[in-house]
Write a structure and sequence with these properties.
With 207 residues, the protein is an alpha+beta fold. It is built from seven helices and nine strands; from the N terminus they run ααβββββααβαβββαα. The strands form three sheets. Strands 6, 7, 8 and 9 form a four-stranded mixed sheet that branches. A three-stranded antiparallel sheet has the order 1-5-4. A two-stranded antiparallel ribbon has the order 2-3. The mean pLDDT is 88. This is von Willebrand factor A domain-containing protein 3B.
Length: 207
C-alpha cells in the first residue's frame, strides 16, 4: 500500500467521501421530520402528516427525527456498502499495526535520516533493533526518494556522507552496513544530540 497518512487515506476511503455517513444515508432513505416557525401563528408547528405513515428514526446526537421512505432493497444496498467499508477499515488497521509500521508508523517524508542510538543494549536487543531497522528499510524506505543512517557514538559514524537516492542497490548496501556495526562502541553524554544535529544539517532533510 502507498505510504499515506490516515487523514489522506480517509479523504479517499472515508464514509463522508463515499456518502456513507449517517446524515448522508438518512437523507437518501428518508426526510427529516421538521418543526418550523409559522409567523401568522407565532409559534413552532410540527408537520403531522407523516405520523404513523412511515417508520421513524431518532438521531441520538441531536434528537432530530427522520421519516424513512426507502424500499428494503435500497436499505440493504447501504448495509452492503457499510459492511464493505468496515472490512476496508479493518484491513487498514491491520496494515497500520503490522511489520515496520507497528514501530515506526507510516513514513510520509520524501527524504529521511535515521539516527541509531543503541545505548548499552544487550546483544539480543541489538539484533532485534537491527531486524526492525532492516524491515523499515525494505518495506518503507524503498518507497521514498532519499535516505541516510547515522550512528550516535563518541566517534559518530555515517552510512553515507549525505542523504542518498533510494534504489535497490543503496537499500541493500545500507542493510549490509547495519549488520556490520559493532555491538559496543564508545559513547559520550552528547553523542545523541550530536547525531541529531548532524542529521538536521543535511540540506535535503526538511525536519
Amino acid at each position: 500500500q502507498p505510504l499515506v497518512s490516515s487523514s489522506k487515506w480517509l479523504q479517499l476511503h472515508g464514509l463522508k467521501r463515499n456518502k456513507l455517513s449517517l446524515s448522508q444515508i438518512l437523507s437518501q432513505i428518508g426526510f427529516q421530520h421538521r418543526k418550523d416557525y409559522v409567523t401568522t401563528l407565532g409559534k413552532l408547528v410540527a408537520s403531522r402528516y407523516a405520523d404513523g405513515l412511515f417508520p421513524q428514526y431518532k438521531r441520538a446526537q441531536d434528537g432530530s427525527i427522520y421519516n424513512l421512505t426507502a424500499k428494503k432493497e435500497l436499505i440493504l444496498h447501504f448495509v452492503d456498502c457499510l459492511m464493505g467499508a468496515i472490512e476496508l477499515y479493518k484491513q487498514r488497521m491491520e496494515w497500520l499495526t503490522s511489520e515496520s509500521r507497528q514501530i515506526f508508523g507510516v513514513i510520509q517524508e520524501r527524504c529521511i535520516i535515521i539516527v541509531l542510538d543503541f545505548g548499552t543494549v544487550a546483544p539480543t536487543e541489538f539484533d532485534l533493533c537491527r531486524d526492525a531497522l532492516s524491515m523499515v528499510l525494505v518495506e518503507q524506505v524503498t518507497q521514498i526518494a532519499k535516505f541516510n543512517l547515522i550512528r550516535a557514538a563518541q566517534d559518530l559514524t555515517k552510512w553515507q556522507q549525505k542523504s542518498t537516492p533510494v534504489s535497490e542497490h543503496t537499500v541493500k548496501s545500507a542493510v549490509t552496513w547495519l549488520w556490520k556495526l559493532d555491538h559496543m562502541t564508545a559513547a559520550s553524554r552528547t553523542s545523541s544530540a550530536e547525531a541529531l544535529l548532524e542529521a538536521m544539517s543535511d540540506e535535503a532533510v526538511s525536519s
